Amino acid sequence: MSNKVLKIIIFAVAILDCVLALIFSFGFNNDKKDNFVQVRQIEAQNPQMVDDLLAATPENLSKWVESNSKSLNDANEALKKDQMQKDILYTYLSELKRITTEEALADYKANFSDHAASLFAKADKKNDYIQGFNTVNNLKDLESYIRKLENEYASIKQDYLVERNYLKAANGLVSTASNIDNTASANKKATDLTALQDDVQGFRKSATLQNVFIIIAYALAIITVLLLLGFALVKIVKNFRSSYKVLLVLVLFAVIVFIGYAIGSSTLTPVALKNGMTASQFKMVNAACFTLYVVLFAAILAILVTSIMNAVKNRK
Fold first, then answer.
1. Model confidence over 94-140: pLDDT tens digits?
2. Is the pLDDT of residue 260 over 50?
C-alpha cells in the first residue's frame, strides 16, 4: 500500500511540475516571449534602465528616451571597437592554425615582422601578440600558444556576445518607448505607456516564477541523484553478484549527463549572467536540467507501464 501511495505522490508532483511549466511556456504569445527575453537581458546588465522606465510618465518619457539613446549610442560605438579587436584575434588565430609543418612555421616567422605591422595596426594588444609569437620556436610551442590565444578569444567573444545582446535588447526597448513618445494623441500615449509598463512589470513576476522553477528543478535533480545512488549502494551491498544491473543503470545515468553537457548551450541567458556563471557552469546547469527531464520522463513512463501491467494481470 505504501508503495502505491508513494507512486501516486511522485506521479502527482511530476504532473503538477509539467502543468506549471506549460502554463509558464504558453503564457506569452511570440511577441510577449521576445519582449520577456529582451527585458531580462536589459535587467541583467542595466536594471536601473528598467526601473526608470517603470517610473516614467507621459510628460517625462521623452527625457528617458533621450538619455538612454545617448548612452546606447556611446555603447554601440564601444562595441564596434570590441568587435574589431575580436576580429583581429580571430584572423591571427586562423593564420596560426594553418601552420602545420616546421617549414611553414619558419616561413611565417621570416615574414612575421612586416605582416604584424599591418595585421595588428589597430590592435590594442599588438605588443603582446608580437612578443608571444616571438617565443614560438617549434610546432609544439605553437600548439601551446594557440591554446592560450583560443582561451583568450573565447573570453573576448563571450563578453562581446553578452554586450551585443544587451544593446540589441536595450535599443529595441528604447525604440518602442520612442514610438510611444511620438504618438500624437495624448490619451493613446498614456494608454500605450501604461500597457508597456504593465508588460514589463509582468515580465518581472514571470522571471520570479522562472527562478522558482529552476530551484524546483535543482531540488528534484539532487533528490533523484541521491536516491539513485542510495538505492544503488544498498543493492550492491546486499547482493553484489547481481549488482551489475545497478552498475549498468549508473553508467546509463552518466551517459545521460554527458549527453546533456555536450548538447547544452554555452550562450549565457540573462539569469545566468545575473548570477555570474561561466559558460562551463551554464553547460553543467543544462546537463542537470536535461538529466532531470529524462529521468522524470522515464519515471512517469515506468509508473504508467507498471500500472497498466498490474491492471492487466489483475483482470486475468
1. 999 999 899 999 999 999 999 999 999 999 999 999 999 999 999 99
2. yes
In the structure grid, which three cell numbers stand for residue 291, read together? Answer: 538529466
* Non-local CB neighbours of 36 within 8 Å, separated by 6+ positions: 28, 203, 206, 207
Return the half-sphere exposure (C-beta side, CA atoms, 13 A cut-off) of residue 96.
Answer: 27
Report the alpha-carbon distance of residue 158 to residue 110 in Å, rounded. Answer: 33
> For residue 247, which amino acid is it?
L
- pTM for the model stands at 0.63
More confident residue, 197 or 20: 197
CA–CA gap between residue 55 and residue 236 (Å, rounded) = 62
Among 108, 86, 87, smallest CA distance to 97 is for 108
Query: If you average pLDDT over every residue of the chain, what do you get?
Result: 81
Q: Is 165 exposed, middle or buried (0-12, 13-18, 19+ CB in 10 A)?
A: buried
CB atoms within 10 A of CB 166: 23
Q: Are 65 and 196 in contact (CB under 8 A)?
A: no
Supply the DSSP string of 40-99, one letter for each residue: HHHHHH-HHHHHHHHH--TTTHHHHHHHHHHHHHHHHHHHHHHHHHHHHHHHHHHHHHT-
- Burial 208-233, CB ≥16 within 10 A → b, else e: eebeeeeebbeebbeebbeeeeeebe
The cell for 114 is 612586416
In angstroms, the CA 230 to CA 186 distance is 66
Nearest to 259 by CA among 228, 290, 230, 295: 290
